[in-house]
Structure formats: structure tokens, C-alpha cells
Amino acid sequence: MDPTIPQIDWSTVMPVVIVVLTGVAALFVEMFSPRRNNNAIVGVSLAGLAIAGGYVVKQFGMADGPTFGGFILRDQLGLVLQLLLIGVCFVAFLFSEGYLREKRIAFAEFYPLALWSTSGAMLMVTTTNMLELFLGLEVLSIALYCLAGMSRQESKSEESALKYFLLGAFASAFFLMGIAYLYGSSGSLDLAGIGTAIASGKSGLQPMAVFGLGMLLVGIAFKAAFVPFHQWTPDVYQGAPTNVTGFMAAASKIAAFGALIRVLDAAVPIQANWFPAMYWICILTMTVGNLAAVVQKDVKRVLGYSSIANAGYVLVAVLAHIKAPDKVGLGTAVYFLLAYALMTLGSFAVVSLAAKGGKEGTRFSDMHGLWKRAPFAVTCLIVFLASLIGVPFTGGFVGKLLIFSDALAAGMPLLAIVLAVNSVISVYYYLGIMQATFVDDEGAVKTSHAKPGLGLNIALLACVVGVFWVAIGADGVRATLGLSAGPKPVSAQTESTTLVARGQAE
Amino acid sequence: MANDVPLSWFLIMSLVMFTVGGVGVVIRRNPVVVFMCIELMLNSVNLTFLAFARYGITPGQTIEQANASAMGGQIAVIFVMAVAAAEVAVGLGIIMAIFRLKNRADVDDMSALRG
Asked: Which residues lie closer than 8 Å to B85 by C-beta, 6 or more apart?
């Protein structure tokens, strides 16, 4: 065999490369910048993210296709999710500086680590190679373990880091075992090759493929926090510094869903084996997430459980797409992820205002008096919570409506009903957060509170505008996403589906 | 390939290792030991990868294809080891940080976060 160097299309990886290099640059700036403020680091990071975003936008309209010997794939889904991840990181950086200062976390490494974490997530959503997927997942996760424990004086933060780390590594082992068995059953590490092997239906290898897929899905379910693999989520969300929680809630969920969509798409030929399981996981995720949130007394925990429930909603959209790929596109899932990222990041940005003088309380009672201190932030919080509830004219409402109609179109009325019932349950705890911000803060010393900084206000404004914009321009946004239903770009998959269907008919 | 030991033995061995590791994660209380159990699970994955790569069980391939797919599994092992090393670095750092804060590190003490 001649070792030929494959043609490399550098434009595909430029966004990831730029984000990684920006992280390196931010680390160098951190070495030389004064201890008192991180403005230079924030500036460099934001500029780098903006450039990376530009490179992603430039790729829209370019031809889809793999490069780097099939390790990186450019397609519409990957580009949209990459852009989303860059946006999440950008907004998280905007409000982090004020929070870190108020919380007295002298840890400017937050910026490089979050950038690298983002780069891992971006890799995850632009590949169909399982090894690459695993590497992206680990780059994302390992940086997040560090970030969760970055408030080193606080045992809550360390505890959340340890829990996240141990369970994350545990999940990685399952993820890897799944990859190993999929590799064993197909001789390929690429989802395309695995999909073909599954579809060819060699009887001896099928059980191995199913076992591998099951293990892989357990690993992904851990990362995306599906019930019953969700126990770590509330603890980690509560203990980690609030800006990290916001970033993690949005970025890791987007990346996990990117991976999940690709894996499930390749596994369509054996969907009889996994679809019922995912169906019930989906119902459980929505229901348990919402019911558990009702009894919580800590705002970050409530939002943690709410993120579990929201993952369930996205899963409905994904399953609807798998069930009826001709009628239901991936646009809805990505649309809801976009809306979810906006409202979750925004909510955590407001919650981060609870930090004062190196301390932070996030119980409901700690939110008292927030309305007096920061009326603008509370107004924004109301918008985000209204959107999470699903009040009309917000992104959350349109997203849920789309998922609801998708589920009906795909012939899964039970999922649609569970979704609707859960939306009603969720009103209770979201209203609880809202109400807490309006209660007068009686015992506290008013002067100890910091004013919300400029960055926070910009971040909030961006999220609020985003929440309304995606709702009003829903059709436009979905058209731009370009992930509507119809013939799939990878025709081999649909072909293989029909092959299997024919095989079963015979 | 002169292999007296059948593939299934390797797979059974690795699944036993994986299970031992998994049970250990659940029942052991010391985070360092828990982490050792996770390492055991990762190593069982490596064994699986290598066994599949060596035995190349996919029928109907040419030699080139078989070599290429075997290489995939072997390279995967290298990456898994590298990632596991990175995880050790971060994990022990976190455990150290907790130890400094509390003078002991036990999973049962991790109860500050609850609903």
C-alpha cells in the first residue's frame, strides 16, 4: 500500500483550529496580564470566537463531504451546531467576568479551558468517526471537570467536580465499550461503515452490533442526562460555579445531541432493537425531570432538572425524525436546542447575580430582593422562564409546538401528550423561581450587592432578543437551518433501510 | 493466523474485567479506588479492541481492507490510553483538591449537594 496523503480541505477544520488556538493565546495573555482584571483575556477570547464563527458561516453553501480521510465531515447539521456552540461560549464569556470577580475566583484559566471544551464539542458534532467522536467528547468533558471544580475554596464545587468526573469517566467506559463492539461487528470505526455493516444484516454479527449500540447509547445518555442516567446532573449543576453550569448545560447538551442524532441515524436498520427503549427513556426523562424539579429548593437544581426535562423534549423531536424521516426533519430538534440554549444560558446568567463578596447562595430565599437590585435582569429572567414554560410568542413555545406536531406527524401521540402534560407541570416550579425574585429581602444588608455589569446586561439582552427573534422568525430560522424533512443527504442509509424492510417482508 | 485461543475467550475475559470494574465503581467508597476500577474498565475496552483487530472477524474482506480495519482498532487503543492518562491527571488533581479542603476524601462524605 502506498501511503498517500489524502486531500485535505482545511476550511472544514478552521473553526475548531481557531478556537483551540484562541485558547492557547488566552493562556499566554493570562501569563502576562495583570492579576487584577481579565479584560485582555476576555477580549482575545471573544475575538477568537467571532473569527471562528465567521469561518463557520463562510462554509454554509459549500459542498458537503468528508475530509481528513473521513475523520471530519462537513454537513448542514454540523455547521449549525458548531455555530450554536460558538454562540453559547460567546454569551457565557460575556457574563462570566463579573461573576468570577464577585465570587472571587482567581482562575483566569476559565477562558482557555472553556474554549477547549467548546472545541471538543465542535469536533463531536462534525464527525461520523467514532474515535473522533470519543476524542471530542473527552476534550469537552475533561475541560468541564476542571471547570466544575474551579472554585477551589468551596467544597460544593469540588464535590460536584468529583461527582462529574467519576460518573463522566464511568460513562466514557460504556461509550468506548460500545464503540469497540460496533467496531468488532463491522470492522470499521466510521458510522457510515458501521451502518452499512448493520444493514447488510450478517446474522452472526447482529447481536454484537446491538450490544455495542446499547452500550454506546448508555454512554451518550449519561452525557445528555436522560433518565435513568441523570442522577449526577442536579448535583453537578448545583455545585459548579454558575457560569460553568450555564455553559455546561447548553454546550454539552448540544454536543451530546449532535452525537446522538448521528448514531441513531446510522442505526436505523436495527431500530426494532432500540426504538422501544429510547421511547420509554424519552417519556421517563420528561416526566421524572419535571416531577423531581417540583420539590427542589435550590434554583440551580431546579434548572438542572428542567434541563433534564428539556433533553426529553429534544429527544421527542429526534425520535420523531427517526420514525418518519420523510415527514419530519431535524430542523425541529435543532430549533429547540437553539431556543433551549438561549433560555438556559440567560437564566443561569441571572442566577449568577446571587454571588456576592466571594459567597453565593442559590436557594430560593437567596433570590429574594433581586427585583429591587436588578430590575432589568429580573425582567429578562421572566422572559426566559416564560419561554421555558412555553408562553406564546417565545422561542420555547414555538419549539414545543413544533415538537408536538412532529410527534403527531410521526404517529407517536403518546409522546405528544406526555410533552403537553409535562409543560403544564413545569409551570409550577418556573413560577416559583419568578415569585422568589419579587419577595422583599428583609434581613439582608442591601449595600453588599454588586450591580450587574455591562457584560451581563449585553448577554441578557442578546438572549432575550434571541428568544423573541427565533419565535417571530421561526419559519425563517428553520429555513436557514436547512434541515427540513425530505430525502436524506446520505442516500446509502435510506437505501439500507428499505433493504432491511424488504428482508423482513420476505 | 495462528491463534490457539479463540476470540470469544478474549471477549469473555474483557467483559469480566469490565463487570468487575463496573461493580467496583458502584460499591467502593474511596475515590481513588473507584477511579482504579474505571481504569480497569477502560483497559478491558482496550483488550476488546485489540482482540477484534487481531481476529478481523468481518468476512469477505480483501487483505488491504482487513489491514486497514485492524489498524483502526489498534490506533483506537493508543488514543484510549492517552485519554485515560489525561483523565488520571485531572481526576487526581480533583481528589487532591478535595483532600486539601477536607483532609479526607471519601465518596460517602460527598453529601453537601442534595435536593
From this structure: none
B77 part of contact set with chain A, CB < 8 Å? no
- Contact list in A for residue B35 (CB cut-off 8 A) is 166, 169
Query: What φ, ψ does residue A451 adopt, rounded to 5°?
Result: -80, 145
Read off the pLDDT of residues A183-196 as tens digits, 9 standing for 90 and up.
988 888 999 888 88
Chain A: residue whose CA lies nearest to B37? A170
Q: Grid coordinates standing for A153? A: 475554596
CA distances to A207, A229, A231 from A211, rounded to whole Å, are 6, 18, 23
Q: Do B38 and A138 count as a contact with CB atoms less than 8 A apart?
A: no
b/e map A56-89, b = 16+ CB within 10 Å: beebeeeeeebbbebbbbbbbbbbbbbbbbbbbb
> Would you state the pLDDT for residue A2?
57
CB contact under 8 A, A183 and B114: no
Nearest-CB residue to B91 (from A165, A177, A297): A165
How far is it, in rounded angstroms, from Cα A485 to Cα A461?
33
pLDDT at A284 over 80: yes
Give residue-wise pLDDT tens across range A317-346.
999 999 998 888 888 999 999 999 999 999
Domains observed in chain B = 7-107 (1.10.287.3510)
Rounded to a whole number of angstroms, the distance from the CA of A186 to the nearest CA of chain B is 6
Of A138, A186, A188, the CB nearest to B83: A138
Distance CA A108, CA A106 (A): 6
Picking from B65, B76, B110, the nearest residue to A159 by CB comes out as B110
- How far is A457 from A434, CA to CA, in rounded Å? 19
Instruction: For residue A344, give the nearest of A244, A460, A250 by alpha carbon.
Output: A250
State whether B97 and A158 contact (CB < 8 Å): yes
